[in-house]
Amino acid sequence: MLDRLAPRALLLALLCCCGVRASSSSSSPSPCPARCECSEAAHTVKCVSKDLRTIPTGIPGYTRNLFVTGNQIRRIGPESFRELENVTNLSLSNNRISEVESHTFAGLRSLRSLDLSNNQLAIIHPEAFTVQNESLQELNLSRALYNHSSVMDLATSFRWSSLATLKVLDLSHNNLIFLPSRIFSHLSSLRRLQLSNNSLVAIHNATFLGLDRLEELDLTLNALRTVPEEGLLELDSLPTATLLLGENPFTCTCGIEPFAAWLNRSQGRIRNADGLVCSFPLSMRNTSMLAVGTLTLGCHQRDAGADLALQTSYVFLGIVLGFIGLIFLFVLYLNRKGIKKRVYDLRDACREVWEGYHYRIEIDSDPRVSQVSAGVDA
Ligand SMILES: *[C@@H]1O[C@H](CO)[C@@H](O)[C@H](O)[C@H]1NC(C)=O
Ligand SMILES: *[C@@H]1O[C@H](CO)[C@@H](O)[C@H](O)[C@H]1NC(C)=O
Ligand SMILES: *[C@@H]1O[C@H](CO)[C@@H](O)[C@H](O)[C@H]1NC(C)=O
Ligand SMILES: *[C@@H]1O[C@H](CO)[C@@H](O)[C@H](O)[C@H]1NC(C)=O
Ligand SMILES: *[C@@H]1O[C@H](CO)[C@@H](O)[C@H](O)[C@H]1NC(C)=O
Ligand SMILES: *[C@@H]1O[C@H](CO)[C@@H](O)[C@H](O)[C@H]1NC(C)=O
Ligand SMILES: *[C@@H]1O[C@H](CO)[C@@H](O)[C@H](O)[C@H]1NC(C)=O
Ligand SMILES: *[C@@H]1O[C@H](CO)[C@@H](O)[C@H](O)[C@H]1NC(C)=O
Ligand SMILES: *[C@@H]1O[C@H](CO)[C@@H](O)[C@H](O)[C@H]1NC(C)=O
């Protein structure tokens, strides 16, 4: 036991001495903010899970990678990041940030990667993501929005923050229900767009407008039941992008044929197209979307069914009419005596009329009478 501890203690003592000597001999010791760990060699400062309420001051100028994660930070503004011109990677994930002011990151002239994942952003000002040097390439907003309402603020900030150099945008796990039209239209360099685990139900015209260089679009774990013609045209407007569409509740009823045909046509650019399956109806669950066609859906059988229903209704109508007829006959039968009498009366009346008529015809056809009338006419 002692044998093992002794070298460690010696090492510790040695390290302490060196540390003391280094700090005493160095004319400008590099300070490190309280509750942070600084590594000048790695140009890295980490203030991780230290219950910090604000961004610490006195972060050394050499810092390239700054991690202030897992704390209780609620507000950040332009004053939070001063004289940090060398920071290229900034992670503020796992805090409670709810508001990002305009120009908060503007002074970080070298900033390339900004991670705001796992926060509660409710208010995002229009120029929240502006960086003086337009150097930002990666923005991580995974699980970062407080609720769906923040998406309008977000769209505005994408418009006004000069993000023309952004290559990667992560908006996964945000409960997004829809994307405002043209939300990405100013992110013309975007290569990867992460939208997985949201609640998107549709893809509309102009949703992905301006993403001419997109290489990957991840829409897994959303609420797409199908993608109608409008959405298919929109996806076709991203010809170079690989698409991820898994884990959506695809509903394989008759309307889905155009989408299924499109999937079959576009297999080449859909990752794991073979793995896409129907979720509803239950009878179709786990059926490959690529195998879904007119035949499997039985869309024509439905027409036959409609015919059958029509035939059934005719039969029913016939029965009802027959029944009414029977009742009519029964009523006639019950009144047979009165009817007989009436018929006789009618017959007598007819006879009288007929006889009178017959009599008149005989008079009319009497040649003498007609001659007389002809003579009068002449
Ligand atoms: C940023 O880094 C450069 C080069 O490493 C260095 O010369 C400069 O002093 C650094 N800036 C600050 C504020 O320390
Ligand atoms: C800094 O960000 C870049 C992407 O911009 C990434 O490739 C790199 O790994 C990050 N470095 C660190 C230390 O996180
Ligand atoms: C964004 O952050 C989450 C964790 O907070 C991580 O899992 C994800 O990979 C990040 N996205 C990108 C594009 O790096
Ligand atoms: C702007 O960013 C680029 C890298 O994106 C860097 O090389 C350049 O030095 C930056 N300019 C200033 C003034 O910081
Ligand atoms: C989002 O949160 C804000 C602030 O609490 C609230 O006013 C708004 O109604 C919420 N929106 C949704 C869609 O829940
Ligand atoms: C999707 O996001 C919700 C929160 O919005 C989370 O609870 C859930 O675990 C996520 N699902 C996956 C598979 O990541
Ligand atoms: C989509 O919108 C553009 C203009 O924003 C319009 O020209 C086009 O006709 C629309 N397409 C569809 C299918 O609605
Ligand atoms: C669907 O397939 C998965 C894996 O292939 C399997 O675990 C699941 O039980 C299947 N569900 C049904 C309803 O067949
Ligand atoms: C899918 O496309 C192939 C040709 O690429 C075709 O032979 C096949 O019949 C199609 N399948 C369906 C279900 O449409």
From TrEMBL:
GO cellular component: plasma membrane
Keywords: Leucine-rich repeat, Membrane, Repeat, Signal, Transmembrane, Transmembrane helix
Domain of life from the UniProt record: Eukaryota
PROSITE patterns membership: LRR
Signal peptide from the UniProt entry: 1-22
Protein's UniProt name: Trophoblast glycoprotein-like
Organism this protein belongs to: Solea senegalensis
GO terms, biological process: negative regulation of canonical Wnt signaling pathway
Residues that span the membrane, as ranges: 314-334
Pfam assignment, any one: LRR_1
UniProt entry tagged with the keyword Lyase: no
InterPro entries named in the record: Cys-rich_flank_reg_C (IPR000483), Leu-rich_rpt (IPR001611), Leu-rich_rpt_typical-subtyp (IPR003591), LRRNT (IPR000372), Wnt_signaling_inhibitor (IPR052286)
Species lineage: Eukaryota, Metazoa, Chordata, Craniata, Vertebrata
Residue span, LRRCT domain: 248-300
Every LRRNT domain range: 31-65
